[in-house]
Design a protein that fits this description.
With 689 residues, the protein is of the alpha/beta class. It is 38% helix and 16% strand. The chain is built from 26 helices and 21 strands. The strands form 5 sheets. Strands 1, 2, 4, 5, 6 and 7 form a 6-stranded antiparallel beta sheet that branches. Strands 8-11-12-3-13-14 form a 6-stranded mixed beta sheet, with helices on both faces. Strands 16-15-17-21 form a 4-stranded parallel beta sheet. The longest helix is centred in the middle third of the chain and has 38 residues. It comes from Paenibacillus chibensis.
Length: 689
């Protein structure tokens, strides 16, 4: 069996009674932005499944997003339901089914069982509760919560019900103990249980793995194994007796002097005198063992001298060993656990990226041997990149603070091509999109490096708004957008702004001709020779942005240049800044030519004066000059500068140089007047709103 889902009602930031999270068999990696509910989901699991944890809640464990009228009507209650489902190929007579037999809600295969934790005010207190709250005359909801805390919280009860909670059948504690729930929270002190045999964790593990080569020898039956272990204990006892005898010989004279005081104090009476005796068992010497780290050089140091990250890894390995011990029927008999669960909150604590990746790989490879299910919460893109899409569950809080749960593996439906593409390219940098509150997808490095600066020029801060800018390296938006389209099941409903180019194209009217990119001012100039399209980007049609229309229901919008004026990002940059030399970086070829053209533009000179400054080399310049003369629009000079700028840059180098120039300018008191292209401004405003 496995935990297939949890439903959390009115616990912490889980509002209402329909907060359902579905789980996979094996590894479940829960991600999301801060305060999305990841840790609280693990705490909810702990309340239901951890027999040893406290079941009492504080007043702040209730979800407080309720009205005064709702509080007056009925006392608040927390309810958490965990559902178990039958695994594939599970034996119908398995211990799993026996354990959950009294919790079943579905008898037919695949069976289902439920455990429900409730924290509630008993019915007999309800009348007094309503009377006390009715007498409060305040519009401050906190006053009502304070009244509940001081007058009723101590009267609240907790129960764990098995099966349908309406029947209020309390789950039997013996079967609950069959669940081994191990929780490593984010703020953990591994030294408490780690370093010496005096500590419970290390002591238990040592005892289980003592004589493991005999216990694990499949060529011997249980009786043979036990006899050999008993013989080793006898031999140890003989050697230990020799040690005790050696101590007694060394103490013989001193003992008589030391105990002579017994006669003086009256401790010796009735012919009885104090003496020393003793024996040592192997289990008693565990406390003498300490954990060390031995290097290949032969140097050994105590584990207490390790870094926190290294000791966290050692602690996790020992915990997995303990879970193996607790699940051993040979060792514990009927007290053995049958359903081990490992829960790790933020495993990246104190671990550098390579170690994070290795840890997750180890957990995935050893899941079936050590734990039946693993639940991990993380803020680490490195950990997220180390697991498959099917293992990732994404929490996202919508604008009304309700929970949206995305299941990355299921979001693609039957589109295995897109799923494989995203799985391949969702590395530690692109994984950042899964943690952000909003996303800007761009086609190239220049947009990626400069988007945060563009936002600052418009008075926005992408980092403060938790907006992630992701460069997808071309027009591969559709693959990624399948993760976010709110019209489909299992997706993550966060805002996604796609910034894309609006390249116009044309093709010759001859057989087998193909569309090729052209300049905006060339559109429809030679219809007898060419067939034109004002753009070749289906994304613009599928997710159109309309500046005049507010579309709050859409969570994906596409932003591009103005029809008939747009081409590429670099083209738009120069078109909107025809006299801004800030964009003329050192790596640009034809730098002097562009500087002279911009000066001429600023002086208000006509197009023909600008054309005289343009070189004639190459195949593009004659084409630009010839076709810009045919263009009758009032913005012909802007198009000329944009064309020359586009054909003069080296995109990689220009991206970095432009970012440096824009940042320096932003910090100056009398900075250069730089204009962010309108479509980029629209994207920033929308995604940050």
């Amino acid at each position: 069996m496995y935990i297939s889902k949890i439903n959390i009602e009115n616990y912490r930031n889980f509002k209402g009674n329909n907060n359902i999270v579905e789980f996979n068999e094996g590894v479940n990696v829960i991600i999301g932005h801060n305060n999305s509910g990841k840790s609280n989901a693990l705490r909810a699991l702990d309340l239901v499944l951890n027999v040893g944890s406290s079941k009492r809640l504080s007043i702040d464990d209730f979800n407080k997003e309720v009205t005064i009228q709702e509080l007056k009507k009925k006392s608040p209650k927390v309810s958490i339901t965990v559902t178990f489902s039958e695994s594939k190929n599970e034996d119908e007579f398995s211990e799993d089914l026996v354990t959950v037999s009294t919790w079943l809600t579905e008898l037919k295969s695949p069976y289902q069982a439920q455990l429900t934790y409730v924290f509630y005010l008993p019915e007999k207190e309800e009348a007094e509760y309503k009377r006390v709250l009715a007498n409060i005359q305040s519009d401050d909801v906190e006053q009502y919560w304070l009244a509940i805390k001081h007058n009723f919280l101590r009267k609240y009860k907790s129960n764990i019900y098995g099966g349908n909670p309406d029947y209020k059948q309390v789950a039997d504690s013996e079967n609950l103990r069959k669940i081994d729930f191990q929780f490593l929270d984010a703020i953990r002190d591994v030294e408490r249980d780690l370093f010496t045999g005096r500590n419970s964790l290390l002591r238990e593990v040592i005892d289980f793995f003592m004589d493991y080569e005999i216990k694990n020898d499949s060529t011997k039956d249980k009786l043979q194994q036990q006899e050999e272990i008993v013989q080793l204990k006898r031999e140890f006892s003989v050697k230990a007796s020799e040690l005790i005898k050696s101590l007694q010989i060394r103490m013989e004279q001193g003992k008589s002097e030391m105990l002579s005081y017994a006669n003086s104090t009256g401790a010796s009476f009735g012919n009885a005198e104090p003496d020393f005796d003793g024996h040592i068992m192997d289990t008693e010497l565990y406390s003498a063992l300490r954990l060390i780290v031995k290097y290949q050089t032969g140097i050994s140091i105590p584990a207490t001298h390790n870094g926190l990250g290294y000791n966290n890894l050692i602690f996790m390995s020992l915990l997995l060993a303990k879970m193996q011990k607790d699940a051993s029927g040979d060792y514990l008999g009927s007290n053995a656990k049958i359903f081990p669960i490992l829960v790790i909150e933020e495993p990246e604590a104190h671990l550098h990226p390579a170690m994070q990746y290795k840890l997750l790989k180890f957990i995935r490879d050893n899941i079936k041997e050590k734990a039946r299910q693993v639940f991990v919460t993380t803020h680490s893109p490195n950990i997220t990149a180390a697991v498959s899409l099917d293992e990732i569950i994404c929490f996202h809080r919508k604008e009304d603070n309700t929970l949206n749960v995305g299941y990355l593996g299921k979001a693609f439906g039957k589109d295995l091509t897109s799923k494989a593409y995203v799985q391949r390219f969702l590395d530690s940098t692109k994984c950042d999109m899964l943690f952000a509150k909003g996303i800007i997808l761009v086609e190239g490095i220049t947009e990626q490096l400069n988007m945060s600066l563009f936002a600052q020029y418009e008075g926005y801060d992408l980092e403060s708004n938790h907006i992630s800018v992701i460069n997808i390296g071309g027009r591969y938006f559709e693959h990624f957008l399948k993760l976010f389209d709110s019209n489909n099941e299992y997706t993550i409903h966060k805002k996604v702004a796609c910034i894309t180019d609006l390249d116009p194209v044309r093709k010759e009217n001859v057989k087998d001709a193909h569309f090729e990119k052209c300049y905006p001012y060339e559109l429809d100039q030679e219809k007898t020779k060419y067939t034109y399209k004002s753009y070749s980007n289906e994304l613009v049609e599928k997710y159109p942005f309309d500046r005049q229309k507010h579309e709050p229901r859409k969570n994906i919008l596409c932003f591009s240049q103005e029809l008939g004026k747009g081409k590429t990002f670099e083209y738009a940059l120069a078109y909107n800044n025809p006299d801004c030399k800030l964009i003329l970086t050192a790596s640009i070829s034809n730098l002097k030519e562009l500087t002279d053209i911009m000066d001429c533009y600023k002086q208000g000179k006509p197009l023909d004066q600008l054309l005289k400054l343009m070189g004639t080399q190459g195949k593009e310049n004659p084409r630009i000059a010839a076709n810009i003369k045919k263009y009758t629009g009032p913005d012909n000079r802007e198009h000329l500068i944009a064309s020359r700028y586009l054909n003069s840059i080296k995109k990689g180098e220009n991206a970095y140089e432009l970012a440096v120039a824009l940042e320096d300018n932003l910090g100056k008191k009398n900075n250069t007047n730089f204009k962010v292209p309108t479509y980029i401004k629209d994207a920033i405003v929308w995604v940050c709103s």
